[in-house]
Every structure is written in structure tokens, then in C-alpha cells.
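Re: the request from the purification team.
They wanted to know what the chain is likely to look like in 3D before they choose a buffer screen. I agreed to run a prediction and write the result into the notebook, where they can find it.
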Amino acid sequence: MKCNQLRLLLLTLIAAAVASAAVAQAQTFTDLFEFDHTNSGCCSSFPGTLAQGRDGNLYGTAFSGGVNGRGSIFKSTLSGTVTVLHSFNVTDGSTPQGGLTLGTDGNFYGTTTSGGTHSAGTIYKITPSGTHTVIYNFTNSTEGGFPRNSPATGPDGRLYGTTVTGSKSTIYKVSTAGVFTPLVTLGLECDGPLTLGIDGKLYGVTQLGGTFGRGSVFSVTSAGVLKTVFSFNDPTGAVPYGPILQAADGNFYGTASVGGSLVSGVVYKMTPAGVYTVLHNFDNNTRANGINPLTGLVQGSDGFLYGVTSGGGTALGGTIFKLKTDGTSFAVIHSFDITHGSSPYSQPLLHTNGTIYGLTNAGGAHNDGVLYSLSAGLKSFVTPVGIKSAKVGGSVGILGQNLSTATQVLFGSTAAPFSTSGNGFMIAKPAAGSTTGIITVKEPGGNLLSPLKFKIAPVITSFTPPSGPVGTQVVITGMSFTQTTAVRFGTKTATFTVNSDTQITTTVPTGAVTGKIQVTTQGGNASSATEFTVE
């Protein structure tokens, strides 16, 4: 063999070895911590949501065990050093099934399924340092009780969740100070947490009900307007438990625990209009790829969806899988082997460092479950906390990595003033000229991007003249008009010209009557404070 050929062969072999090592490193499973029931707690159940704190640590709950045997709240470093922050004692709640939600105030919020003043469960707040406060005790009366999920942050900054009484659920909202309001009765059991959509509505799933009695996807507004978006049936998947994910393409993705063409559950895609597609069927006969997913999905920087199944796999302890959003390239990344965890019932968390973290219900040295991580070679990113939109000047909390070295924050292409709090958190305020788009945080080590577009909401401050007949030219002043798509006088659409980010010129349309002026942009809707009088 000639020298050049030998050199080429060696380079090829080295490249192949490096590529193989990169792939192996990109999908590394680690058993970070094994729960022991007595001290740290036991058996995290669905939905069991983990939360990323402003300090970058993980925060979660153990369903049972702990010092009093009633469950606990814990903090973990990313390397798996676990500290118990609170052990429940029945009086302050018992059996925290839902996990935790990071609030916009930096504290965590969760629920217990029982205990409290009326033995019907509680809503609580806990600070990162471990100060626990019950903010509401359920009575199991008109508002229900026994909540199984952690509340989600809504578009108004309040927390939204569901209760369970028999086969019915009540959707509620509660302030961080504990002011509680029953919002609307679902009439169907809803165990999974709600998801805030980019349209400002909250989305969730019911396990039963719908047209076929096998579950549904619903939306609800902060005013309590409830709508069924899709009804499940056995041939295309049924009995969904996990929360739905709104991905970068604007569509929703989730899992159903049973049904589908192969009986053992599905991964599905649903458009905002409710058009439903099965992306993958889990096979009850060949269980190596997993069966019966009880959790929702996360989407990595590679565009793939990542999720877990509660059973199946090579040791029948469940799997971690990935799948493209078009339903192709399904692959099992990890099969739980019981020794290092089994039965992953809890919702996985995609940390802003690109690593996936989760909890199992069983397995580990004590068979009380484990905290695990999966490194899949995903990029770091930034994400706003609890909100999907803001007005110019509003405060936007952002989680990320190495934020203390950030040099600039952009909303769309406009720089925003910001301040950092350690490496994991910053507050930025969209400036005049900001547009709906990706949030970019510029850092010396590489820019960090938000997975979803962040909406900049428009504001109408005034219009002139205050009245006039059809055909009158009206000048609207305000903020964030650059991406305007429509102007309306009441229900009548008007022609318009965007003069600048702060001004629109429009004409009173035929058929208009006295009413408020509305401006619609890519960031949302704005309505005038006063009415335009049509003469």
C-alpha cells in the first residue's frame, strides 16, 4: 500500500472513531441519585414535573417517604447532590404528586393530593432555600380537591391548575398570595398539568370524555372560556396523561397511554385547529421500543421530540426515545434496566444546558426510584420563565447558561436592557422597536437562542380625530405596530398604513359603527381605551 493511501486510510479510521465516540457521548444516560424512601423520599409518580431554578439546580417532589412518610420536596445539583428542602406532615399537605413549577417571582409552586386543613390537598409555595408556605387549602366542595398536578403560569401571571373530585375536574386560578378562584368545571378527570400556548390560552388533556369517551384535548382562556379541541378514540390513541408540548413549528405534540393500531399508546401531532395525526404507534407484541407512555414530550435543538415510556424496553422497565416531528427516525436511546431506575412516570425536563433530566417511580438500589440525566448532544438555549409575551418595557425573566458573561439581549433584532443574577438567570426588558421573534442572548462562548418566538404585544395610547364619518382618516399612536396585520373599527376591517413602530394611519371603513379600535399584530391584539364615534 502506498504511503498516501495508508495515510488516507488512517485518517478515515480516526475520523470514524471520533464520530463513533461523539455519537456515544451524545447519548449518555446517568443514574444521578437513588431515592431511599426514609430520608429522601420515594416513588415519584405522574406527572411529577421537575423544575429548573434560577440557580440552575433541579427542584422536584417525592410522592411518598421522607422523614414523616408523607412525601418531600428536594433540590438537586446537576451532578446529583440531593438536599431535602421540606418533608410533608399531613397538616401542611401529603403525597405531592404533581411536582413543581417555577414562578415568575423565583419561588416554586406545587400541590399535594391530600392533607391540609380539610384533608383535600393544598397549594403551596416553597422558596429555593426551603421556606414552605401553604397558600390554599382545598375543601372538596364547589372547587373540588385532591389536585394531582402542579399549577402552570397563565398569561396574567396567576397560576392555573385542576382539581379532581370523583370523575370531574375543576379548573382554577390562584394568585401567588393565595387568592383562589374556581374558573370552570371540566366534568372530566384531568391529571396532567396545563400548558400555556403562544396564543395565550392554556391547554390540557382529559383521560376520559370527549366524543368517544376516551379522552380529549381542551383549551381554556384566563376568563374561563372552555373549548374541546380534539377527542381521542382507541384506533388513534386514547387515555392521554402527559401534558402537551407546543413545538417550534407551532403545532402541539403529545402521547396517549393506550390505543393506536398496536394497542400500547401513540405519539401524536395536533395543529392549533385540532387536526390530529398519529406519528408513532407503540407495539404491545414487540415491546423493545417501549409501551404505554404516561408523560409528555420535550423538543431538543436538533428538532427531535424526546419522551419516555412507562414500560417495555429490553428489561421491561421503560424506555427513553426520540422521534422526528414528521414521525420518522424513531429510536430508543435508553432502556431502563431496573438497577438504575424503572417505570419513568414523571415528565422529563429539558434543562437549558441541553441535558434531559427525569425521575423514575421505581428501580435503583432501594427500588424507590432514581433521578437520571440523558446527554443527547443537544445545544444550550435560553427560555423565558412562565410567559410567552410582554409589552415594551415589561420585565422578562430568562433562564440560561453563563448569563453573567452576556453582552447583549435581542428581542427580534432590537437590543434590550438587561441585568443578570448569577449564571442561570437574567431579567430583560424589551425596548421600543422590539418585534415578535426569537430571543437572542449574545455570549462570548456562543449565542443562545430561545426555542419559540416571543411575542411583543402592541399598545394603543391614543387616536385622532376622536370621531368622524365613514372615510375619515384616523391616526393611531402607540407602540409595537411594525408587524401589524389588521386594523378594525369594531368588527369592520379597515385599510391601513404602518408609518412607524409608533404610528398607523387608517380610514374608517364602510359599515363601521361607534366602538373601540383594534390593532392586530404578530404579537397579539390591542384595543383602544375609548371608543371612536362614527358620525
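For the purification team: The chain has four domains: 28-151+354-379, 232-346, 383-455, 458-534.
Please add any questions underneath this entry.
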